[in-house]
Amino acid sequence: MTRVRKATGVLALALAATAGCGVQPTGVVDGGEPASGLTKDLRIYYVHGSRLQGVTRPDISLQAPEGVLKLLSQEPTRAEEERGLVNLVRLEGYWTTGRDHRITLHSPGASFDSPRDRLPNGQLVCTLARAQSYVHRDEGVRPDDVRVSLDDGERTYGPYQCSQFLT
Questions:
Q1: Which of 13, 21, 53, 92 is buried most, with the most CB atoms less than 10 Å from its CB?
Q2: Is the residue at 7 inside a domain?
Q3: Number of domains present in the structure of the chain
């Protein structure tokens, strides 16, 4: 009988302790939509120091990846400049070709082959990969799967992946 009394006392103590904490049963609670953001919005890439940094451009409607180059040709916003972001891309004339997981930027006379071109090339590659993914999001094209080539009119460089410029 003492074992039963001891067990009942422990159970009563446990019930009293949990009842006093103020937590009430709620049933099933909906957690909402899955996390999103980075893969939904369009991103362009600027330079911060010696590395690339993506900047989201929400609510942009883009029909073709080439359109993102117009966004990239604009300078960073005032707030982005204050955070140290700069644009090193300078293109005269350009067009893009490609589909699905491949895209080529054609810019006759552009420089893509010197060591100082690494960061601007990275801006182009990452921005175009993101745009290609954005335009083809219904087909499940991910930015990491996109291969970007850069053609200066004499030679084609790449194909590159954005991840090659993010390290």
A1: 53
A2: no
A3: 1
